[in-house]
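Morning. Coffee machine broken again, so started the prediction first thing and wrote up yesterday's gels while waiting. Chain of 370 residues, entered below exactly as on the submission form.
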Amino acid sequence: MDAAGWQRAKPIIEEALQRPPGARRAYVASACEDPALRAEIDALLESYALDERETPPAAAAAPDADDRTADSSASAIASFEFGPGLHVGDRYVLVAPLGKGGGGEVHRARDQRLQRDVAIKILPPRGGAEDSRRIREARAAAQLNHRGIATIHDVFDLDGRACIVMELVDGDTLAQRMQRGRLALSEIVHIGVQIADAVEHAHACGILHCDLKPGNVKFGADGTVKVLDFGLARRTEQGGSAVRGGVTGLTAGSLDGLALGTPGYMSPEQLLGLTIDRRSDVYSLGVIVHEMATGERLFDGASVMSTAVAVLSAPVRELPHTVPRRLRSVIYKALSRKPEDRYPSAAQLRDALRSVPTSAWRNLLRFPFV
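Came back before lunch.
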């Protein structure tokens, strides 16, 4: 479905979502005369119905977890398929659940061989070829060596499930940091530069992140920014900058796309399942910086589907005039809907952020959550 198709589908989707799940298909049949577009809408609504039936994600202090505080109650633990004390692989013992969502379960675990705690992400089974691909690409991401990227220690198969063992970062996520209070201009620039630098390193190594969001950015003990979840990143072909068909869009009628990205932070081309390149991560970085500057999510619909529709069709919300003009210019360019209008690389976005003046008096400025 292209952008024009989305414009035609949007009112039908929004009206269908107001109806009970069992009545949606009949409504679409009556409201849409185009068989091809109707099939696309039905697939999208089925994807949304699956999302409605999913167990809500648990707390988040780990990669791909939600941004709420961890709930250690017995009922929360019971919602996980795997529990504390379980041995996984040949050297890890699960200690406590950290988060759960469409992308799998994340647990704190003990590496018995090296006597250290790690984070283990246990992915849901997808099928032979897909599981093998995920393990191959996690192994490729494990080659990344940058102080701003959480290290991947190990990858293995657990009864048909890919398991990714990662560096455990105990600090707050960026989402949690923003919830505690307003960020100064100097903080916004400093954090944005660190994230962009880490992403640029990955791009130089032929890796696209595909799921950049505040919940996948944490702060180490020394305050250093750490970008998480490169275990689900995508390797570009032959060291190039693009991935064709590497990310399943919402048009596929499944949750695979959501497992590989969060709609409010995904680029329009990623949502549509089109070819993506490093400029897709640049867009996601722009969404993150916009959120740091305003204290509000740029696209935050009432549902996964309404959020996706907003990314594809809603105008970018204007930034408050309290945000310095230079920073506004950087954010708007990164958020261009057309990839060719964005910064062509994370390095250029990083350098543009570095050029934002952060004089002493501006460091005192706190941005309102408006």
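The longest helix spans residues 185-204. Going to sketch it on the whiteboard this afternoon.
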